[in-house]
Amino acid sequence: MLLAPLLALGLGASPASAGVATLCLAQPGQTACVSGTVGNRTNPVEGADVVLRDEAGTEVNSITTAADGKYSFQVTEAGNYFLFVDPESLPDDVEIIPPAPRFQEDDGSIRVPVKLGRTATPDLEVRSVDYDAEGSGFGEQIVQSIAQGLRLGLLLALASVGLSLIYGTTGLSSFSHAEQVTLGGMVAYGLVNVAGLNLWIGILLTTIICGATGYVQDRLMWQPLRRRGLGLTQMMIVTIGLALAAQYAFQFFVGASQQKVVVRTFDVVEIGPVRMTDMSFVAMGVALVAIAVVGFVLLRTRVGQATRAVSDNPALAAASGIDVDRIIRFVWIAATALAGLGGVFYALVVSNGIRWDTGMQILLLLFAAVTLGGLGTAFGAFVGAIIIGLVVELAGPLGAPGDLKYAVALVILILLLMVRPQGLLGRAVRVG
Amino acid sequence: MNEFLGILDAVVGEAISPDTAAVAIAVIGLNIHFGFTGLLNIGQAGYMLLGAYGMAISITYDIPLAVAVLIGLVVSVLFSFILGLPTLKLRGDYLAIVTISAAEIIRYTGRLAAFEDFTGGSQGIFGKDYQGPFMDLSFFGSGSFDLLPLNYRDAGGGAGLRVVGLLVAVAAVVGIVVIAKRMKSADGQAPKIGTTATPKLVVAALFVVLFLALFFSFPQTEPRTSVDGWWVRVVAWSLVGVSCIIVFLLVRSPWGRLLRGIREDEEAMRSLGKNVFAIKMQALIIGGMFGALGGMVYVLTGSVQADSMGRQLTFFAYTALLLGGAATIFGPVLGSIIFFSARILVRELSGAYVPNSIMSTQQTEQFSYVVVGVALVLLVIFRPQGILGDKRELRFHV
Amino acid sequence: MSEPTNPSTPSGTTTTDGQGDLADPAARRALMSGVAQVPGAEKPDPILSVDRITRHFGGITAVDVEHLEVQRGLITALIGPNGAGKTTFFNLITGFDKPSSAGKGAHWSFNGAKLDKTSAPKVAKAGMVRTFQLTKALSRMTVMDNMMLGAKDQTGESLAKAMFKPLWHSQEGEVRAKAEELLARFKLLEKKDDYAGSLSGGQRKLLEMARALMTDPTMIMLDEPMAGVNPALTQSLLGHIQSLRDEGMTVLFVEHDMHVVQHISDWVVVMAEGRIVAEGPADTVMANPAVIDAYLGAHHDTDLGDDDLLRDEVVKDLHHEADEEEAARRDAEKGKR
Lengths: 432, 398, 337
Ligand SMILES: Nc1ncnc2c1ncn2[C@@H]1O[C@H](COP(=O)(O)OP(=O)(O)OP(=O)(O)O)[C@@H](O)[C@H]1O
Ligand SMILES: [Mg+2]
Prior knowledge:
The complex is a heterotrimer.
Chain A: H1 3-10, H2 15-23, E1 32-37, E2 49-53, E3 59-64, E4 70-75, E5 79-85, E6 94-96, E7 110-114, E8 119-120, E9 126-128, H3 129-133, H4 138-170, H5 177-194, H6 199-228, H7 232-254, E10 268-271, E11 274-277, H8 278-300, H9 302-312, H10 314-319, H11 324-350, H12 358-373, H13 378-395, H14 404-419
Parallel strand pairs in A: 1-8
Antiparallel strand pairs in A: 1-4, 2-3, 2-5, 5-7, 6-9, 10-11
Chain B: H1 2-15, H2 18-36, H3 44-60, H4 65-87, H5 92-111, H6 116-119, H7 132-136, E1 146-147, E2 150-151, H8 152-155, H9 159-185, H10 197-217, H11 230-251, H12 254-264, H13 266-271, H14 276-298, H15 311-324, H16 331-353, H17 361-382
Antiparallel strand pairs in B: 1-2
Helix pairs in contact in B: 1-16, 2-11, 2-12, 2-14, 2-15, 2-16, 3-4, 3-5, 3-14, 4-14, 9-10, 12-14, 15-16, 16-17
Chain C: H1 19-22, H2 25-33, E1 46-57, E2 60-71, E3 75-79, H3 86-93, E4 107-110, E5 113-114, H4 120-125, E6 128-130, H5 143-150, H6 159-162, H7 165-185, H8 201-213, E7 219-223, H9 231-246, E8 250-254, H10 258-264, E9 267-272, E10 275-280, H11 282-285, H12 289-296, H13 307-311, H14 313-336
Parallel strand pairs in C: 3-8, 3-9, 6-7, 7-8
Antiparallel strand pairs in C: 1-2, 1-4, 4-5, 9-10
The complex binds adenosine-5'-triphosphate (ATP) and magnesium ion (MG).
The site of magnesium ion has 4 residues of chain C, from helix 3.
C-alpha cells in the first residue's frame, strides 16, 4: 500500500523503471526485457529506429521511438542480443555514444547480455556528432567537461551563496532552498512558456517573484518563529515540511512531467574544443554578474557589512545598533531571488526543462558546496559550488557511471570533512 | 455510508499494514538517533535500503533466513562506522549532510546497471526471489485465524461484530487519552523513566486491545503474499513491540542517560570523562540496526526497490517521529500509525468528496502529501513536542 | 601519591607529608614560602606541570606559556585581564583544544602522567575535571540526572549491560545517594527533580561544580565559578572550595574578583596576553609591577595591592568596557546554538 505512492515518488529518480514496467514485465524463468530510452530522460530522441537482433543476427523486433524516446523489447530466451540504432533515423547532429568496448560490436550495435526474469537497460545516450567528428580525444572531452563543470558550478553558486548566507545569519540549514530553485524554473515556465512573455522579461519577473516569496516567508514565518525562539533543529524540520509540501504542490499544479521554459532550441556555439548552447554562455555570464554583485554588496556596502557582522556575531551586531531582523529579511529576499534566477537558468541550460524534483536533485550538491566551502561563508560557498560543479561534470569522462557522478561529489565532501572539518574557508569554533 | 466504511477500511488498513509497522521500526531507530542522542541522521532510509538489500541478496544466494537477517544487520553496522568515523567528532550539521549523502549514494549504487546481478538495478529484486523462506515459516496456514469466538476471516462480513470491534477500539482510545491526561496533570516534576510504570503499562495494554479490536474488525488481504498478509502483519507488529521494549530497557538505564546528556551538551559530557564519540557511535549503530530491521520488514510485502527508500521516506520518518513525540517510547509507533493513516484519510476524503473536475485521482494523492508537508510545518510550530512529548522540555532551548 | 623528587626544592622541610597539614593556613604558607615569586617558579610538589604551550588564533597569540607548575593540595588562582588567554589555557590542558605548538616541544603532565595527546574525556578520567565559564547545564534533564551523569565507572553505562537492570541497580542507588549528599551541600536538593534548564544562572554554576565533584576529581579547575553568583552564595561557595582543599583536592580557578582571589587562594598566577607575567601569594603579587602593567596599562602609579582601590572606580571602569564585550559574546554564543 505504502509502496505504490512511494514508487510513484521514486519516478523522479528512476526514469526507466516506471515507464518500462508497464511496457514489458520480465517474468522469472519465462521472459526478459530489453528496454530504456534513446537519449536521456531530459533529452529523449524521438523517431529513432531501434532494432534488436539475436545471436544469429535475425531481427527480433524493431521500434521507432515516440516523443519520450522509450523503447522496449520482450524476449523469451536468455543469451546475447544486439541492439542497433539506425544512425539515419537520428537527428542529423547527434549520434549514439559508443558503449564500453566489451559491449561494442563491429557493426555499431551494442551487445546486451540478457537473463530471464531481468530487464536489461543498455545506455543509448546521444551526443552531438561534431563532438566526435573533431576527433574528440580524451583531452578535449576533459576540456568540454571543465566548461560544463564551470557552467554547473556557477549555477549552483547562485543557489548555494544564498543558502550559505541564510545559514550564516540565522544558523538554519534550509532544506527547502532546493524548492526555491525549482520554483524559479516553474515560475519562468508559467510566465514564458504558458503566458508567452518575452524570455528576458520573464527571467526578470521570476527573480522578483522568487525574491518576494523570500520576503513573505520571512515576514510570515521565519521572523515570528525566531521571535518565539524556536530551536534551530525544529526550524530545519519546518524547512523539510515546506520542501515536501512544495514538491507535491508543483506536481499538483504542473504535473509530474518535465516542462520546458522555452520551446525553441538554442544555437550551439563553439569556442575551441568547447561546444555549448549560446544560452549556456549567457547563463554563465549572468551568474557571474549576479555573484559579483553579491560580492560587491557584501564587501562594499553598509548592508553587506551589516550582513557580515550579523553572520559573525548576531548579539554583538544587535548591540552595535544593527537591525538584525532587517538584515535577515534582506538575506532571505536575496537568497530566494538568487535561487530563483539559478533555477531558471538551470532549467534552460542544464536540465533542459523543469520538473517538480529538479531542485531536489541538486539539493545535495548545494549542501556539498556550502559545506565544502565552510558553513556560513558566502565566498566559501561560491568556491565550493565551482568545485562541486567541476567534480560532477568531470566524474563522467573519468569513469563514474550514471548518477554515480553525484556520488563522487559527495565522497569528496566526506573526505574533505575528515581532513578539514571546518570546510575550506571556515573557521573552527570556540569551546568553553 | 458504504463510502464511509470504505474510507474507514482504507484508513485502518493503512494503520495496521505491515509497511506502517516497518516504518515504525525505522522511526524507533531514528528516535534513538535524533530523539534521545540528538544525532541528526537524515539518511535513515539508507539504513532501511541496506538492511533490505542485505537480507534479500543473501537469500537469493540461498543463505538461510536467520543468517540473511544477520547479514543485513551487520551491513548496517558497517555503514554506521563509515558514516560515524568521519563525522561524529564534528558538529551535528555535518552528520546530517553526510548521512543524507550516503543514503543517496546507496540508492544510486543500488540502481546502477553494473550491479544488476545483485540488486536488480532500477527494477529491484522481486518479492518472490527472497520472500519464500520467510513465508515458509508461517504457521497461519490458510491465513484465517481463530481467537476465542473471533475469526479473522469472518469478522469482515459480520456487521454486528464489526460495530462491537469499533466500540472497543473507541473505548481503548478514550482510555489511553484519559490516562495520558492524568499522567500529564500529575506533573510538576519531571517524569523519570521507569518510576511511573503502572499507568504506562495500562496504556500499553490498552494499545494491545485497540490493536486487536481493529485487527479483527478490519481484516486485510495482502494480495502479494501467499498467506493473506496475516503472517507478515503479526511478525511486523511483534517486531515493533519487541523494538519498543528494547528501547525502553535501554533508555531507562545509565546508558540512556548518557545519550540524553550528549543530546544536551557534548562538551559538558566530555568534561565529565565520558567518551562521547564512542557513545554516539553506539547510538548510531543501534538506531541504524533498527533502521535496517525496518527496511527488511518493509520489503516483506513488496520488492526491494532502491527508489522506494529514498529521501522522502526519511522525511516521512521525521514527520512521524515529531508527530508522536521525540524521545518517548511509544511516540514513534503512534506517530507512524497516525501519519500514514491520516494521509490515506486525506486522500480518500478528497477522492470521495471533491469532484474529479477540481481534483483528479492523481491530484488527491499529491494533495495528501501537500497536507502532510504543511501538517509537519504546523506541528513543529504549534506542538513541537508531538502527541506524547513533554511540553516543559521545550522551554529550555538546546 | 608518589612524589616526584625535585632536587631543587627550595625548602626541603616542607614537603606534603600529609593532607591534614594543608588544612592549616600556616602550613600552606610555610609550604609556599620558599617558592620563588617569578613566572614559572618551581613548586615543591607540582600536580600539574606545563611546558611551552602556545596557541594562535589567526594572527593573535592567545596562549604562550613557557613553564607553569601547580602545587598539589592548594588553591591556585589564575587571574588576568579579559582576553588574557585563561579559558584558552584551560581548554588546552584539559584536552578541549590543541596547542599550536603540539609536537614542537609542547608538553604537560598531570599527576606524573603525560597529557600531551590525551583527549578531554581521558583527562577527566585521570582526575582533572574542569567547569566552563559559560555554564553547560544539561537543560532538558533533571538536576538529579545531571548529577548522576557525573559519577565515574558506572556499570550501566556499558551498552552490553544497560538492558539488564539487576546489573546496575545497586550501583545506581549508591550514585543517587552521593548525588543527594552533594546537592544538599550545594543547596540544590529541593530542586533535584526540576529540569536543569529551569535553574537560575547562579544555580547552574553550583550544579556544574557539584556535577564535576561527582567524578571524585584529584584536581578541579573552575572557570569563573563565582560569576553571576550573589554575594551570600559566593561566601558559601568559597567555603565549599576551601573545604575541598582541606579534604586534599587541588583547585585551580579563574576569577576576576580580587577580593575572592585574596580571600581563598594560596597562590596566584597572573596571565596577560597569553603569558604568565607573575606568580606569588595573593597579598604580594598585586604589587608586582608586571601585574599592574597588565591590568592598568598606563595607570602605572596605582597600587593594585591596595584593597580599597580595587573596589574603586579604577578597576571597575577598566573592566566595564571589557565586561560589556564579554556579555555580548556570551549572548552571541547562546544565540549561535
Ligand atoms: N576559537 C577562537 N577563535 C579565535 N579567537 C579565539 C578563540 N578562542 C579564544 N580566542 C581569542 O583568544 C584570546 C584569549 O581568549 P580567552 O577566552 O582565553 O580569554 P580569557 O582570559 O578567558 O578572558 P575572560 O577573562 O574574558 O574570560 C582572546 O583574544 C580571544 O578572542
Ligand atoms: Mg575566560
